[in-house]
Design brief:
The protein is mainly α. The chain has five helices and no strands.
Length: 118
Amino acid sequence: MQRPSRLLILAVAFSVAIAGTFVFAFRAGRHARRLHFENEPIRSWMSVPFIAHTHHVPSAVLFQAIGLEPQQRDRRPLRVIARQQHRPVEDVVRDLERALASAGHTHPAPESPGGKAP
């Protein structure tokens, strides 16, 4: 049997190093995106299931906090829910923030256009 050449061993080692780099870069990026959404304040474009998923809270808890029956496929944004309930979006967001706080999850206050929190 012939021994593998050094060039072949080097090529395999280089390929493994590149593959490992891509795997760990993908995992780091996925983790960074998850942290970004966990720390993002609740916005009017978000749906209740999206907020529940990013904060690891059952969506039923959040639906009950805003006075709705839990629904599996309700993907309406908060602004639509607020409009249908004849409430300001800020009230719906405040109710959701209270529910998240009672579940042990918090997030930062939204920033104003000037870059400082109100």
